[in-house]
Amino acid sequence: MSESAINIGLAQPSVSQVIANIEREYGVRLFERLSRRLYLTDDGSYLASYARRILSLYDELDANLGAYAPACGATCGSDDKCGKQHHGGVGLTF
């Protein structure tokens, strides 16, 4: 888990806490620890599958959303058109 935490730029205790929160919220175990190694459980594999799909959709959105910015006519309270500089809808005008 330490190596995974380093790969995403977080401290290992933070990653462990997020995993524990998900396990508690859904009442499942995401990992099984055997001989100092972690293995995904069936629920962990199920969650990982959804996470990959979500990340893929985000990548698709990120790659394509800016292509529509000039036609959308929305601004974010400045001269920015709705693209990567969008502020989550705050101050959006049409």
Compact overview of the structure:
By secondary structure, the protein is mainly alpha-helical. The protein has helices at residues 2-8, 12-26, 42-64, 69-72, and strands at residues 31-34, 37-40.
* Secondary structure tally: strands: 2
**Overall pLDDT confidence:** 79
Q: What is the tally of helical segments?
A: 4
Strand adjacency order, main sheet: 1-2
**β content, as a range?**
5-15%
Major beta sheet summary: 2 strands, antiparallel
Structure characterization notes:
With 94 residues, this protein is mainly α. It is built from four helices and two strands. Strands 1-2 form a two-stranded antiparallel ribbon. The radius of gyration is 19 Å and the shape is elongated.
Attribute tags:
single chain, 94 residues, mainly alpha, two-stranded antiparallel sheet, 4 helices, 9% strand, elongated, disordered C terminus
List the topology elements.
Blueprint: H1 2-8, H2 12-26, E1 31-34, E2 37-40, H3 42-64, H4 69-72
Antiparallel strand pairs: 1-2
